[in-house]
Amino acid sequence: MIKVAPSILSADFSRLQEEVKRVEDAGADLLHIDVMDGHFVPNITVGPPVISSLRQRCSLPFDVHLMIENPERYVEDFIKAGADILTVHVESTVHINRLVQSIRDKGALPAVALNPGTPLNALDYILEDVHMVLLMTVNPGFGGQSFIKGMLKKIRELKSLIVTRNLDVLIQVDGGINEKNALEVVNAGADILVAGSAVYNSPDPASVIRKLKNLPPL
Ligand code: DX5
Ligand code: ZN
Q1: How many CA atoms lie within 13 A of 11 on its CB side?
Q2: Residue 37 is a catalytic residue
Q3: CA 138–ligand 1 middle distance (angstroms)
């Protein structure tokens, strides 16, 4: 069963609690929280205080996507704030193995993310240690960008690596996912779809989430 993780990046931040409730009621499986520092990516979003406030008001698992430099400094803060899955970019550290182990040791599920231009072989010696791989299908930094078509091949290749190595690793796809392309992304091997603008810009997020999961309307 495909899971959908709405990204709050496209929510109305002045009403964050209601916006989170809106997707929870609409059938979201996870809440995707994009953390940006203005260095690793050219945008700045939220940090641990916002996440821990939301944690009191939302029962969905928190899927926290760190797009920051020096992520090792903040692992503990994000886990204490409520991250269930903590995703770090392989491009953001020279010690990915240590970082993944420290996420696991501190009690969250570790995931690694790859920018569109980063080859899959960056995962060769870390794949078996992670809960999930996030493949970026836009260049990270902003919501509402277009899906990079060439990434379908990358999703298929990652899926076949996981199958060949007989691993229990989930594939999350993030960036430009909508009702039109969800099926081919899932057919390529995705297990979890992140969707920001497609869910939040819709007057009927429940129907969008069902379409992303390829379920018939209620
Ligand atoms: C982009 C973020 C995404 C983004 C997705 O840097 O990592 O999670 O919010 O938004 P859409 O679905 O609008 O591309
Ligand atoms: Zn994201």
Answers
A1: 23
A2: no
A3: 8
